[in-house]
Each structure stands twice: as C-alpha cells, then as structure tokens.
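sorry for the late reply, my laptop died twice this morning and i had to redo everyting from scratch. anyway the thing you sent over, i finally got around to it. pasting the sequence first so we're on the same page, its 421 residues, then the predicted structure underneath. double check i copied it right bc i was rushing
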Amino acid sequence: MSTPTIHRHSSEHGRVLAEPVAYTDNDRLHSSLAWLRANQPVTWVDVPPYRPFWAVTKHADIMAIERDNELWLSEPRPLLLQAEVEDRVKADQEAGVGLRTLIHMDDPHHRDIRKIGVDWFRPKAMRDLKVRVDELAKRYVDRMAEIGPECDFVTEVAINFPLYVILSLLGLPEEDFPRMLKLTQEMFGGEDAEHQRGEGGTEDIMAVLLDFFTYFSALTASRRANPTDDLASAIANGRINGELMSDMDTLSYYVIVASAGHDTTKDAISGGLCALVEHPDQLARLKAHPDLMGTAVEEMIRWSTPVKEFMRTATRDTEVRGVPIPKGESVLLSYVSANRDEDIFENPFTFDVARDPNKHLSFGYGVHFCLGAALARMELNSLFTELVPRLESIELAGVPEYSATTFVGGLKHLPIRYSLR
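ok and here's the structure:
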C-alpha cells in the first residue's frame, strides 16, 4: 500500500492563525478563515516563532476531533505558544513546578480533577448564586448611569462584573481583586503590548505564573488549616482516590478558575454589547421582545468567541477531511472559524438575537466542554436583562480596540456614549 502524500504548503490565509495582531482586525481574520473553509479546510501553518501545526477550520471536523479524546490528546500541546515558551512550560511541568490546568490534561486524570469543582457549576449551584449575580449586574448598570454619558465599557463594566462574580465564588477578599485582574491580563495578554508584563518574553510570562502560584500557595495553606464554605476551600481540600491533589494540580486549578473564569466572560459581554450597538435593529428587537434574551446571549457568545483555539495531538497516524496527519503532529481547532461555518449557520455573518438553533463551539465540545459555561451564560443574561430595558440610547464614542492574541481575547476598549433610565 502506498503512503499518502502529505502536502505541507502554508498559505497566506493560514498565517492569520499564528499572528496575534490578526485577531485585532476582524475583516482580515474572517476573510482569511472563510477562504480556508472553502479552499483548504485543513491546512499546514508554519510561522515562526511557533512550531508548525495543522489548522482545522470546519465545525464538523472540530467536533469529530473533540469527540475522539483517545485519538486526539491535549498533551503535550494544548494551545498555541511560541516554541521557546512551550519548551519552558514543558520543562517546568516535568520538574513538577509548571502550570498544568484542566486544559492541559487528558483522561483519566482530567476526569478526576474536573470532578473537584463540577458541583459548584451545576444547575442548583447556579440557582443559588443567581441572586448575587443579579445584585452585581444592577450595581454595574447603576455605575454606568452614574459615570455617563460616556465610558469605556470594557474597563468600567465588562472586566469588573465577572471578576467580582468568580472571585466571590472562590471566596477571595475584595481587596485582592485588582491583583487577580492584573495577573490575568498579564497572562492572557502576553502578546499584547498594552497588557504584557515587561517585554512579554518567556521570563516575564514565567514571573506572572510565579506570582499566581505564590498567592494561591498561601490561600491553599489557609483553607486547609481553616476550611470555609467556598470554592477555594473545595479546591484546597479536593481529593483523588482519598489523597489531596498535588500542589501543582491545586495551584493550577485556582489559576484556571480565577483567570479564565472571568476573562472569557468579559470578552463575551463586551463583544455582545458591541454587536448590539453596531446592529441597532437587533437591539431594538431585543428591547421589544425581552423573551429573546436566552437566544441573544448565545448569539453574543458565538459572535465574540472569546477562546480562539485549542490544540490536540494525534496519538496515531490518521486523517482529517482526507488530509493525512502523522502520529505526533498537532492540529489547531479554530473556534472562531467554526462559529462562522456556512454549513452550520444560516447567514453566519449576520448577528441575529433570535438565532435558533445556535450550535456554536465557544465552550468547546466533548470531555473538555467549559466547566463554567452555565455561569457565563447566567452572567450575560443577568447583565443584559438589567441593561437593555434601561437603555434610552447608545452609540460608539470612539473606535473599539481588540487585544492581540492567539488564545483568549476580545475587546480591550469599547468607548460608548449612552443614556440610561
């Protein structure tokens, strides 16, 4: 039997997936992704300083890969990192001192670790939390009214509202919230000049992680000595097969909950409001039909797609859409592309608050489906349920600015002019 030919020709369109600045230009990004879906849905991308990978841009292919978590593993390359950073993270993990969150893990360890926090995000827990989330939503819409008629919605509302929700759930003191915010921005903003620490190099990124670990090491010791009724205590005292989680698993759990638990929601909230401002007919429709809030929230999440990609590595020779993928090579799952796939979404470039069905992949799929999806949906629902009826007018007061990223990101500035009841 002849060995199939593997075509490794990197197109200019594929390069956008390894260019952080491309995610600041939606027209360029989506134009390239649409071309890839139509012409090279599985394409080779070789853009230093990243190691090469296969980009997968079709919704159905991404779902198939995420569904087969034995063929496709998160380790050793769960997300796109520069080669130097990737090597440092791997070395630290092998030495037992590196970040190793749920997104880095595979079953059975992933399943066991996930169980530690899953009860905190079940429907009953969400119902119990809703009163607090609604209170915070009102607080921040009231704040908009106080500081109007103009504000930067990202820095005044979209960052702080989900930050307060997730850190309250963890049980952290309010005076520590600004520290967690800065560390999160530095971690996810390592490729954005405004948010990165120092020059954004490997040592700067490692320093951010060390600061996270230092903070959460003290928190773990405190919660083990004096358990409390919060998520931080559940993590600190979480056990697998009767044994406490390792120090690194414990610290990594805190990092992913405290950072991703609010930063991705910030991106969905700000992206959602920007979409409503830029599509006033849909805002008017939502004001007239508040019962559409559930579908509107899903459309905001599809439209913004805060998590741009995850990666998987093949455990054996295989193929995707007829393209051979050798064992040990990695694929990048472009959720941004999947959420505009013409084969799945009718008029995918139309923002439609009544879109139903809406099979977006913003929360991933399969065993790695986002642990906090229900919380994110509730936060968006609470905030826009409070905000939309009170809006008398709203428009852009400047140019929206997006973060340079290849992983998690969205708007970093959204200047608006408005009036509220």
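The mean pLDDT is 92.
thats about all i looked at so far, will dig more tmrw
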